[in-house]
Amino acid sequence: MNRKLILCCLITGLSLTGCKKLHSLFHSSLEKTATDTAAATPPPAPIPVANPEPAAPAPTPPLAKAINKNAVAICLCYHNIEDGKSKALTISVAEFEKEMQAIKDNGFTVIPLQDFLAWRRGEKNIPAKSAIISLDDGWASGYSTAWPILKKFNYPFTLFIYINYVNSGGKSMTWDQLAEMRDAGVDIECHTYSHADLRSPLRARSVDARTMGLIKADIATLGEDGWMHKEIAESKHVLEKQLGIKVNAIAYPFGNYNKKVLDAVKATGYEAGFTVYGRELHYSTPEFNLLGRYAVDAKDPKIFADAMKMIGGGDVGAPASEPQYEQVAAASMITQPMENETIGNPTPLIKANLATLGAIDPASVKVRISGLGVVPAKYDAATRTVSYQVTPAQKLTDPAYTVIISATAAGAGIETKWDFNYDPTGKKVGPPPAAPLPPR
Description:
With about 450 residues, the protein is of the alpha/beta class. The protein is about 30% helix and about 20% strand.
């Protein structure tokens, strides 16, 4: 019995010991299998990540042109240049030439008015001591006498023109003379419609009897606001349409203005308004009421002397010949837009076939658009077509436009023009209410 019990205990012990060994062997086998599997399975390939290209360095903005805001300018104002009996606002031919030399001798550089305005916009520099020359009204002597002298000195200048004086006979310039001067690069700006005192139009003895009658008739018909609109806005419109230029400056008759005048000038889109109270002109001089000019007068030579002191200080030549312009009817041309057509596109293609104008010199073709001035049009000699694409920066805003094309054929000047209207709504419209253009 005892022997059987001992034998059972031994068998049970051996069984338990074997189980532990089997358990150990089982786990050892699993671990080995896992290790072998891990060794046999390659690690997953890394997910490719695109290496970002190094960012291109931001372009270096062009350095802004340094503007010399310390430069100073003066503006001289002349009227009639004529020999003979001394009259108000008139100086002799010899005196005018003497003063042109004095400008140079006193260290001034004569610059175009448009350069002065560009300087004030921060677009370009002007010489530290600059002078601007302007001639008012539209005296014929500006064409026949002053211009040859100014060309001799290579001086740019500006004409401030009032509409009622042009083509009025006597000593006034003609539209053809103005067109010739325009073609030669003379700047033409506005001096109102009738030269009335904008502050007090009915002021006694401010204008001659005929002009006063016209002013009174306009006020009676248009009212004072309508009269002022004609003087300030319609005068600008007439110059732009007659000559195909952009007008951005006005000279106040007698230098007079008030708040109402200044508001109208700003609303019309002028960039500058000039008076006749001579002074230094600076970068920040207010643009509508303090741009003073020295109104040179033989009866008061101190005015010119003062002008020369403000910032430190011949042969006339033959008069230019009369231009030989032949007015060609626009109806004889194929144009785009067509004559009196109303368009709604603010950036149209302006185009004209010039075949009917004869054998023109391709290099002489010039295109002007009222309100824009001369534009860089392209002329195709093969098709005899001139075209210009209005840019977004120039987009149309006015209700009516005039295109003027000039060229030379057989040595003679040829000029033609046509009108078209602009209405963003596409409605048919006519020109804005305005006085008829003066005859040319």
